[in-house]
Write a structure and sequence with these properties.
Length: about 450
């Protein structure tokens, strides 16, 4: 009597699939008129952190190497001091939890759940897919005039994020574009690079229709950096294709509208004749700097900017910003942050907090660029991962000059930092060390270095 053959499970379930689910949840629409704060993706990201912790306990794997623990843990001391100096215990606990989620816990979980370059590419493609969906919704909003209000017309593309988070779609599309360009410039198969090139060209239109000057600047600088880092030949080829696509979009499809041209032109006028939104931003930047001057080392405490804003802001600051459209009624949205992550950290956390945050980011950037140079030198696989990881980090560092954390898209900041951390600390040549002890795979654990395919 023969025994029935045992059931065969799939060869490998990627451990990064829960992170992909976090990205997928950002495709869901928000309730019209909602506040645009933390959403289902944030809740799932907390579950991902718990899942990662349980997985580490089951596999008895050392959580992080010493280098990774130091780099990712740099912000903790400054955050702890700022939480103790908060205006209230509740504000301190809430702010500490949010900062730890975005800058420490979720990036560490993403770093640990990415087993190899195949997982990294899966997560990068999921960001591209989310960007295509949000971009399609944004283009539809522009064409049907159902977007957020912009200069009296409901044409601003905001995707499913609503008018209270006008930067949400611009952030998603920009990050997807950075991932797509990194995949194009890599050494993958022609079919993969052609698909990524098509996605990149498709994302240019919704990025333009977002009317987000900060996203435009951050994306342009990041794509330029990716082209330079990829090599002169690739830079010339992709640069020529981008210029051609811009000519077709603006000339052939008539996207050079007066509003779009005016918005582009206003980038050069932010010092000569700034509009009210730019004036408000300058005023809030000055207020954050004033808070830091009052308490240079520790700042005014987490969640303290709204409480101390009026005491340091000039009369040029307006009472708030107007939001309307995309299914929501008119409302006046208060200005609760300086829209500059560096100044927000400086004002609320002081020099201790700012140095912890920026020091960790710069360490990741240096390690990532060093790994990218090594990949280019040996000509081996992984150039696409290097360009995506470094590109996402560069985009975030530039965008933080015009934005800070807040809204449903903020969880993407944590995911991007996790991707950049994986490349810098594990994925780059020579980065994975024996300190990592064991690496979970579908068949159990493998001692020693991480598998990099």
């Amino acid at each position: 009597m023969s025994l029935a053959p045992p059931l065969r499970l799939p060869a490998r379930f990627s451990p990064v699939l829960p992170v992909v689910a976090v990205v997928a949840l950002l495709a869901l629409p928000v309730h019209p008129g909602g506040e645009g704060g933390a959403g289902p993706a944030d809740a799932l990201s907390a579950l991902v952190v718990g899942h990662c912790a349980v997985r580490l306990l089951r596999t008895r794997r050392r959580p992080l190497s010493r280098a990774a623990a130091v780099v990712l843990g740099l912000p903790v001391a400054g955050l702890a001091f700022a939480a103790m100096n908060a205006v209230s215990p509740g504000a301190g606990i809430t702010g500490l939890g949010r900062y730890l989620q975005i800058f420490v816990l979720v990036p560490a979980a993403v770093l640990l759940l990415i087993a190899d370059r195949r997982d990294f590419r899966l997560l990068a493609w999921s960001l591209v897919g989310l960007a295509l969906w949000q971009g399609a919704v944004g283009v539809h909003q522009y064409l049907t005039r159902t977007g957020a209000s912009y200069q009296g017309e409901d044409i601003r593309a905001v995707g499913t994020f609503g008018p209270t988070d006008v930067m949400g779609m611009a952030t998603v599309v920009s990050l997807g574009l950075v991932c797509a360009v990194g995949l194009v410039l890599g050494r993958s198969s022609f079919r993969v690079r052609a698909a990524a090139a098509g996605c990149a060209l498709a994302l240019l239109l919704p990025l333009a229709l977002s009317f987000s000057r900060g996203a435009w600047i951050a994306t342009a600088l990041t794509l330029t950096a990716q082209l330079v880092l990829a090599g002169a030949r690739r830079a010339l080829m992709v640069g020529a294709a981008t210029v051609a696509a811009g000519v077709v979009l603006v000339g052939g499809f008539g996207l050079g509208t007066a509003m779009l041209q005016e918005r582009i032109g206003s980038i050069a006028q932010v010092t000569d004749a700034p509009d009210q939104s730019v004036t408000d931003r300058y005023t809030m930047w000055a207020a954050a700097a004033g808070m830091w001057q009052a308490r240079p080392l520790t700042g005014v405490g987490l969640k303290g900017f709204p409480e101390y804003r009026d005491g340091h802001a000039s009369l040029a600051l307006s009472s708030g910003g107007d939001t309307e459209g995309a299914g929501a009624a008119y409302r006046r949205q208060p200005l609760l942050s300086p829209h500059n992550m560096y100044l927000l950290a400086l004002g609320e956390q002081g020099l201790i907090g700012l140095l912890g945050l920026v020091g960790g980011w710069l360490a990741l950037l240096v390690c990532g660029l060093r790994g990218l140079r090594q990949v280019r030198a040996v000509g081996g696989p992984g150039l696409d991962c290097a360009l995506v990881g470094c590109g996402l980090l560069i985009w975030q560092l530039v965008d933080f000059l015009y934005a800070d954390i807040g809204g449903r898209s903020t969880v993407l900041t944590a995911l991007c930092l996790g991707l950049a951390a994986w490349w810098s600390l594990l994925g780059a040549p020579g980065a994975a060390t024996a300190e990592s002890a064991t690496v979970p795979t579908a068949r159990g654990t493998v001692p020693g270095k991480a598998t990099l395919r």
